[in-house]
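Lecture 7 notes: from sequence to structure.

We start with a single chain of 276 residues. Read the sequence below before looking at the structure.
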Amino acid sequence: MLQATKLPLKSISKIHISMPLSEIAEIRIRSERAAAVVDIRGKTFFCTEVFSAEEIAEIFAEICRYSVYSFQNEIAQGFITLDGGNRVGICGTAVYKNGKIDFIKDISGLNIRIAHEKKGCADELYNRFFSHKPQSLILGGEPLSGKTTMLRDLARQLSGRFRVTIIDSRNEISGSVRGTASFDVGKNTDVMCKAEKKDGILTALRTMSPEIIICDEIADDSAAVEQCMFCGVKIIAAAHAASIDELKKRFDVVRFFDCAAVIKSGAIVQTEEFQR
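Now the structure, written as tokens:
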């Protein structure tokens, strides 16, 4: 049974399942259908509890701290990050403005992704690539593979030797609450929350004199990554990919990195160092 005091939201406390919160990766709630829980290994368990449209609306209101329009920008991106780094994905009816999603209404589904801290999970990655010098690393993995958890622990370990800045666009790596990280990201780590990666990287380069910059999912951020490299600063970033070959095919920025790794279920399954 999940204890209400340990859940990220009080309004979902009616869910019952024989699994500790530390084993849960996601809690998925859909209007008029049974809730589901996904464990950290990716297995889905369906619950007996069904949430009505009214209950979904109440959960959504709690997520938004009962001020929905205060979170309009986040909602337009399809997610809201709760205090402590737990991210809630949102499905419903998209409302467009000037060719872009401006809001999501009639919320029909919520995916609550539970943030975890696992100290030591990046030991192999640290020893493989960072024991002698800082390097730029692109970390690939499928959804729920543990990329964010790995980045969090890598930041903690690297901070013992280097000046680290985290560009925490979705506030998942640090889980910061009013400027204070909820997780241990290291004694010599600065965190910039909610900034777009391009803006955050360039600001960090100008103001924080980092030796290593860490950020979450990259896509079309090649200009900022390239400028980072030309300034002599190393960058560590995550990307959705199931293999190193897929990383190379999908992401043009790979050419700027020194090495790559791919993880699955929190374990490293591929590594490669590049000749640049």
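Confidence is low (pLDDT under 50) at residues 1-5. Keep this in mind for problem set 3.
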